């Protein structure tokens, strides 16, 4: 009897979100399972592509010839039942293609790498082609040795059927294997070999003696033996030839944290509020009950300890734990803490790891060798099978939203998985998103509160410096005398300082002082950013780079002004004012290299610097006991952005960064330089009054019809020609008017505020709605139909709950 399988294929522009049916060749019938990756032929050219088995069928109603599955890539399924259901939901909820959802669930190392090879069918070809093949049957088509002339000839040979192009599908990254040996002889035979040795064969004697001391049949890494005995690869090879041992390759994990020495720590004795929160969470773990909790705790209140003890409880119940942190800048501190409690049971998944490292961590989780997973956004897909608790730390962070397809929010996925596993989900923050806080209010979520700092101190005092008056008399353009004085004070006391530069919506640029000309990117509608370290002007959107102009490209004037404040510029200003201060700068430039985050933070923690100067990335989660002063250089830059979340982001950022001060015994103090001291977000951040901020902002959102009162979906079109992009979005707006009820609103269509990026023009509209019965279906159709346009280069993006309105 013939068997069939439904397969979702990896063909980007031919997605219908429907699987294709293939015949399972009889030799595969007992091997193929749902959730495995296979290779199939696709389209008229029968191109080889990767696919995922979604169903196995005993019969099909399809007429005509059906293509067979060509090969199987997995021995066991890489996606289980939960993963298949999750991919289904994700595709529908985020308006994504099924294939991108299935791929999102796996480490990128397991994504297909497509290779082409060539095989000669005859020797009747030019000498040049023959040399190319030498004694090989098959060569790689992408080989650098093949120049374009030769390439053209190869293509001609293919057409004449003298050469065959074969496509292959491979994993991007392979399992790392290292050499090992296995002893095969028993004691008696080894002794016999020893007696046959010549006097001079010293190395061989060492090897035989070593073999005598290890068990028969066990794999032992060559590297380990080398370290102990000084034997080398040649000696092992000789041993193998003589039949003393067998050489094999064994799998080895790449361990990203091998060099970190972490001391074990014990659980702290919980404070009453922590105790109460932990108990409520643990009750749900015990009863296998799904419940979402908001853990709202002021900065420094000890939310982490609540997480750790709940994780410990889940493990005690034989369950697993999954914890998300927003950014890799936070992971070194959190990792160390989690590892100090749970040791080898912890796996890390974050964007700072190489593909191979992520792949290895993923497999440790899949094999149940790690039961606690800590990681950034995509770690939410970790292949845990028995989850007892899911934690989303700093749940308000926008980095939880993925900006490419599938455009999911990790918090939504966390709640989906919490339901699937019948376990609690903890959303923790000192400044919860309005959405989450509102749901806690309405009792949709449980609400746990920590209102006191764990050290018993009050929150640090926050002072505003009114830059409208102070800027003119400031000792440096970006540092007021008030700020300078308190920094000096703290340095004298040998305490540490954190200074934050708010860079959102802002960049440093050059302008001609004579004609006002601003140097812009040739590909995008945005000014180029000045980078002193590379002495160049760079576009942050497309990567374009050019030299700093010596004279104005427009009027040839020589008076070029440098505007705005970058961290680099502030570092120079600071160093001039405080020549002996040791300053560490932390921004995208100083943290690009792998492990740089961790190194900088460790240095600061070890008091090798007095001042940590950085961008947003230093605002959250960091816990340095000796930091007593936090300075914010520019509070306002985000306020002016055309985004209804601008004030929420400002409030959160200021509250979070203020929370870095005074976390141990010493009292903390915060200074915020601002041009808008009367703005409510800044004033309430000064008071560190989240509750009052929440009610005020909710009133404004209600009045404006914004989330959490309304849902939003953003649609964007883009094309190399402006008219086409605009036409498409207006056409969609027209269709939407037919689909939507009178209750919904469409904002736009408008060009995006940065209309051109990398020579593409962007148009967008935003739908605000509460309950639209026909909207989903329309958008699903729009997505599928968009592919015809996509093949011509016209792109469409549907983004549910967008974070970026600019
Ligand atoms: N029960 C406890 N007893 C003593 N110290 C505690 C206790 N709980 C937490 N701490 C200490 O309080 C400090 C702050 O805790 P933690 O970093 O967890 O705060 P947080 O709530 O995560 O704050 P933030 O939102 O600012 O990141 C840490 O140094 C921690 O060790
Ligand atoms: Zn000029
Ligand atoms: Zn650009």
UniProtKB/TrEMBL annotation:
Record-linked InterPro entries: DEAD/DEAH_box_helicase_dom, Helicase_ATP-bd, Helicase_C-like, P-loop_NTPase, PriA, PriA_3primeBD, PriA_3primeBD_sf, PriA_C
All copies of domain Helicase ATP-binding, residue ranges: 284-450
Ligand binding (Zn(2+) 1): 512, 515, 552, 555
Reactions performed catalytically: ATP + H2O = ADP + phosphate + H(+); Couples ATP hydrolysis with the unwinding of duplex DNA by translocating in the 3'-5' direction
GO molecular function: 3'-5' DNA helicase activity; ATP binding; DNA binding; hydrolase activity; zinc ion binding
Record: residues binding Zn(2+) 2: 521, 524, 539, 542
Record-listed E.C. numbers: 5.6.2.4
Keyword Zinc among record annotations: yes
EC top class named in words: isomerase
An annotated GO cellular component: primosome complex
Biological-process GO terms, alphabetical: DNA recombination; DNA replication initiation; DNA replication, synthesis of primer; double-strand break repair
Cofactor: how and how many bound: Binds 2 zinc ions per subunit.
Domain Helicase C-terminal: 547-701
Gene3D superfamilies referenced in this protein's UniProt entry, alphabetically: P-loop containing nucleotide triphosphate hydrolases, PriA, 3(prime) DNA-binding domain
Keywords, comma-separated and alphabetical: ATP-binding, DNA replication, DNA-binding, Helicase, Hydrolase, Isomerase, Metal-binding, Nucleotide-binding, Primosome, Zinc
Record keyword Iron present: no
UniProt xrefs under Pfam families: DEAD, Helicase_C, PriA_3primeBD, PriA_C, Zn_ribbon_PriA
Cofactor: Zn(2+)
Stated role: Initiates the restart of stalled replication forks, which reloads the replicative helicase on sites other than the origin of replication. Recognizes and binds to abandoned replication forks and remodels them to uncover a helicase loading site. Promotes assembly of the primosome at these replication forks.
Subunit architecture: Component of the replication restart primosome.
Stored PANTHER family: PRIMOSOMAL PROTEIN N
Entry similarity comment: Belongs to the helicase family. PriA subfamily.
Protein name according to UniProt: Replication restart protein PriA
């Amino acid at each position: 009897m013939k068997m069939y399988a439904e397969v979702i294929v990896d063909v980007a522009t031919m997605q219908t979100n429907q699987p294709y049916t293939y015949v399972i060749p009889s030799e595969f019938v007992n091997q193929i399972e749902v959730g495995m990756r296979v290779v199939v032929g696709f389209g008229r050219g029968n191109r080889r592509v990767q696919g995922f088995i979604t169903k196995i069928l005993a019969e099909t109603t399809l007429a005509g010839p059906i293509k067979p599955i060509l090969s199987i890539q997995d021995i066991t399924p890489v996606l289980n039942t939960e993963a298949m259901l999750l991919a289904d939901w994700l595709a529908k909820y985020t308006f994504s293609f099924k294939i991108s959802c299935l791929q999102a669930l796996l480490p990128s190392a397991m994504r297909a790498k497509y290779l082409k090879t060539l095989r000669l069918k005859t020797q009747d070809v030019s000498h040049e082609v023959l040399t190319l093949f030498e004694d090989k049957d098959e060569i790689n088509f992408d080989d650098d040795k093949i120049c374009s002339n030769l390439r053209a000839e190869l293509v001609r040979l293919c057409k004449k059927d003298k050469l065959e192009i074969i496509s292959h599908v491979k994993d991007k990254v392979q399992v790392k294997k290292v050499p090992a040996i296995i002893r095969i002889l028993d004691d008696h035979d080894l002794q016999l070999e020893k007696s046959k040795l010549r006097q001079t064969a010293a190395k061989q004697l060492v090897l035989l003696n070593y073999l005598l001391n290890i068990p028969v049949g066990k794999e032992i890494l060559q590297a380990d033996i080398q370290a102990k005995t000084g034997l080398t690869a040649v000696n092992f090879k000789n041993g193998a030839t003589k039949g003393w041992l067998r050489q094999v390759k064994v799998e080895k994990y790449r361990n990203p944290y091998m060099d970190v020495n972490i001391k074990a720590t014990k659980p702290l004795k919980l404070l009453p509020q922590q105790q109460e929160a932990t108990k409520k969470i643990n009750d749900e773990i015990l009863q296998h009950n799904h419940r979402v909790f908001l853990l709202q705790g002021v900065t420094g209140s000890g939310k982490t300890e609540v997480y750790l003890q709940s994780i410990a409880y889940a493990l005690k119940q034989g369950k697993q734990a999954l914890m998300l942190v927003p950014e890799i800048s936070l992971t070194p501190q959190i990792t160390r803490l989690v590892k100090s409690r749970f040791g080898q049971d912890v796996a890390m998944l974050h964007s700072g790891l190489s593909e191979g490292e992520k792949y290895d961590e993923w497999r440790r989780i899949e094999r149940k060798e790690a039961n606690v997973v800590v990681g950034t956004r995509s770690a939410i897909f970790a292949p845990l099978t028995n989850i007892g608790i899911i934690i989303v730390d700093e749940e308000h962070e926008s980095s939880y939203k993925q900006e490419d397809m599938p455009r999911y929010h990790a918090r939504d996925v966390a709640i989906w998985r919490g339901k699937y596993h019948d376990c609690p989900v903890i959303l923790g923050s000192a400044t919860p998103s309005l959405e989450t806080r509102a749901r806690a209010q309405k009792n949709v979520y449980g609400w746990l509160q920590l209102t006191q700092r764990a050290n018993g101190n009050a929150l640090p005092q926050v002072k505003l410096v009114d830059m409208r008056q102070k800027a003119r008399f400031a000792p440096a353009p970006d540092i007021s005398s008030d700020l300078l004085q308190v920094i000096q004070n703290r340095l004298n006391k040998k305490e540490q300082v954190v200074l934050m530069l708010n860079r959102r919506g802002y960049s440093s640029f050059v302008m001609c002082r004579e004609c006002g000309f601003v140097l812009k990117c040739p590909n995008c509608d945005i000014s180029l950013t000045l980078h002193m370290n590379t002495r160049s002007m760079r576009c942050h959107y497309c990567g374009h780079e050019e030299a700093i102009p010596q004279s104005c490209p427009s009027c040839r004037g020589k008076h070029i002004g440098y505007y705005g404040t970058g961290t680099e510029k502030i570092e120079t200003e600071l160093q001039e004012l405080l020549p002996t201060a040791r300053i560490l700068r932390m921004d995208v430039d100083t943290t690009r290299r792998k492990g740089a985050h961790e190194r900088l933070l460790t240095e600061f923690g070890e008091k090798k610097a007095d001042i940590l100067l950085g961008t947003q990335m230093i605002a959250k989660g960091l816990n340095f006991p000796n930091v007593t002063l936090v300075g914010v250089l520019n509070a306002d830059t985000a306020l002016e952005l055309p985004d209804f979340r601008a004030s929420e982001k400002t409030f959160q950022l200021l509250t979070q960064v203020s929370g870095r001060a005074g976390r141990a015994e010493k009292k903390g103090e915060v200074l915020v330089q601002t041009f808008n001291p009367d703005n409510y977000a800044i004033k309430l951040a000064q008071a560190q009054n989240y509750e009052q901020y929440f009610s005020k902002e909710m009133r404004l959102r209600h009045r404006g019809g914004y989330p959490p009162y309304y849902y939003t979906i953003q649609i964007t079109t883009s094309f190399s020609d402006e008219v086409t992009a605009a036409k498409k979005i207006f056409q969609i707006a027209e269709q939407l008017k037919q689909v939507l009820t009178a209750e919904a609103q469409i904002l736009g269509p408008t060009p995006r505020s940065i209309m051109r990026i990398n020579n593409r023009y962007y148009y967008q509209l935003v739908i605000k709605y509460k309950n639209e019965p026909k909207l989903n279906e329309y958008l699903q159709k729009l997505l599928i139909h968009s592919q015809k346009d996509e093949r011509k280069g016209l792109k469409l993006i549907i983004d549910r709950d967008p974070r970026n309105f600019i």
